[in-house]
């Protein structure tokens, strides 16, 4: 029996695949390689090059492999770009999830761990986000992730589907040098590309009511995020109850200045970030409480900020 990882050739998905394998769980991957990389998937892991929108490909996969459950990471994951491409975002994230759930129902697969997002919270009005914090997404991406959670809940009530959704914030770092974040929009790759091109990264606002005046955000290492997916899967296999949603947060966060200081230490490239005006809508502090995930999934932040930066930078250099 295997776990199907949708989007398993992507940055987070490929780490989840390896974490599952390390836990002695067999894995099957489906990915259309629109943003993933075939080389991120171990050669001995069964791989289907297809979209989850392809019902025939999904049915064939479930027919060919005995699947215990699904870790669903496939989707269009760019919040800013989703504003420009709302229909594409809904098609990939909502229609795709409907297609996956329908195929699971046809195949009798009753467990799913869903990759959700802090985007469901929009701009929180509280300093510490809990699972009870109001969900007010502000982008098509955040909306589709929240709809995905609703779909799982509705299917659970209708069919007994066992499900949980993991909401995480800024995923960074690398758990293995051959796996890296290649997103054109995420913070770490943007800073690395700027430094390699000789440009100075920017800090947007240094007059916030925080200890050093810069915004505070949650940053979590990708290996820790992957471990939470495995813990959820194993809990389901053991027949233990899971909550509908879990936040994967640090409870403390890091400031933008702290990130930049860690970038200097991790890359060895000295720079003084440019201070730019505040961006409209940026809250001073957005940090999540991970207590519920700690209770049920053994969730813990096991990597320091310096380790997040150095591991990500090492993967970038390895890929050259």
From TrEMBL:
Biological or metabolic pathway of the protein: Carbohydrate metabolism; galactose metabolism
EC number: 5.1.3.2
Reaction catalysis annotation: UDP-alpha-D-glucose = UDP-alpha-D-galactose
GO MF assignments: UDP-glucose 4-epimerase activity
NAD-dependent epimerase/dehydratase domain: residues covered: 3-249
Record key words, sorted: Carbohydrate metabolism, Isomerase, NAD
Keyword Isomerase included in the entry's annotation: yes
Gene Ontology terms: biological process: galactose catabolic process via UDP-galactose, Leloir pathway
NAD among keywords: yes
Similarity comment: Belongs to the NAD(P)-dependent epimerase/dehydratase family.
NCBIfam families xref list: galE
Designated name of the protein: UDP-glucose 4-epimerase
Natural source organism: Gryllotalpicola protaetiae
Source species taxonomy: Bacteria, Bacillati, Actinomycetota, Actinomycetes, Micrococcales
